[in-house]
Amino acid sequence: MPTTHVVSRNHTVYTIAVIGFIFTLHVVLPMYSNSSFLSLFADERTVGFIYMASAAVSILGFLFASSVIRRFGNYAVSMALVCIQIVLFYGLVTATTGTVISILFILQAAVVSLIGLTLDIFLEKYTDGQHAGAIRGLYTTTLNASWLIGPMIGSMLINGMNNYRNTYIAGLAMLFPLLYLIHKNFPRFRDPNYIHLSPWQLVKHVSSNKNWVRLLLANIILQTFYAWMVIYSPIYLNKTIGFSWDEIAIILTIMLIPFVIVQYPLGRLADKKYGEKEIMAIGFIIMGISTIALSFIGIKNLALWALILFLTRIGAASAEIMMETYFFKTVSPRDSAVLGLFRITRPVSNFIAPLITGAALLFTTHANLFIVIGVISLIGLWPALTIKDTR
Fold first, then answer.
1. Least CB-packed of 14, 86, 105, 294 within 10 Å?
2. Measuring CA to CA, how many Å separate 70 from each of 67, 121, 343, 389?
3. 33, 158 contact by CB (below 8 A)
4. Segment 305-333, tens digit of pLDDT
């Protein structure tokens, strides 16, 4: 029976990884062209406000998500969210006015965050603490494989023109197999007895664990780095440096390779040999220094930009998998509210990134924004070095 249980658990973990891959691919296909698509209907400042609004709606969604999941169950909520996302993506394909497109974009960004939360809950149910690093490493590696191929496919769909809607058509197509796989594999999913916490109780519960607080701070820094890079680096590469979208797709594909090659082995190392804090700290150092270096590259050199951006993601991928491993070793499946708070760092960071850009541009140039983001990344050293290792 124990052997059967392990085989069943492993099969389910692999299934969730496949589901996560398809889900993430639908997000990534339009991800790096989202800001350019929105810029057809709004100026750069307005695009920043749209991202901030999507972050605010996502945060609200996370605040209510735990109660909704506890009432209706994770399976039902995940199915409903995917159906809503189908409607929203169809709207992005067909809408013609800037106002409607902005509203649809804001809502779909919030739904993406909540679907990701339900997948986390599915995976956490089948994760044991002893193998958390390997399981999270496998899951994040699978998700990041979609980040590797998504920009290239998205660029091919845009085809050097402003055919941004083609990426939403492809993303819409991904949602139907996603809906089918969730329905096929989890209709009888047994929800854990979720711990009910009011927002104030949740804050007190998390605040009582200094390691969680430090991990949340480190994750906010990492997610702010991601948010800023996703929103502004493609525009910078295209409009300031002068790369074509085909060239940007090559750069982004090379840049994202570390997420596929380093996270699974690092997760296994964290399980078997090392603690998380040292690798996390090294990741922030690499990420911060290489990001600062980008501000000094003013030439159109594909290989150079790809190399330095590759180094930034070596650092980011290392820090990310250590945070994932640490968090899921210290939280139980019943803590959906705590998990929601951990994931709320993503929309919070999407809110912070445009603020950083707006404030920094009052005093410096677009190129020097890389220095600002690099210095912020280096601040992640403090929480990384002060958490207590799980080993």
1. 14
2. 5, 12, 17, 31
3. yes
4. 999 999 999 999 999 988 888 887 777 66
Determine the distance from the C-alpha atom of residue 61 to the mean position of all C-alpha atoms in its chain, rounded to a whole number: 16
Amino acid of residue 319: A
CA–CA separation, 208 vs 206, rounded Å?
5
DSSP state letters, 144-210: HHHHHHHHHHHHHHHTTTT-THHHHHHHHHHHHHHHHHHHHH-TT-----PPP--HHHHHHHHHT-H
210, two tokens: 């200094």
Residues in the chain: 391
Residue 298: how many CB atoms within 10 A of its CB?
9
Q: In the numeric block, which tokens belong to residue 357? A: 């850009």
Q: What is the pTM of this model?
A: 0.79
Q: State the DSSP string of 18-45.
A: HHHHHHHHHHHTTGGGHHHHHTTTS-HH
The C-alpha atoms of residue 27 and residue 260 are separated, in whole angstroms, by 17
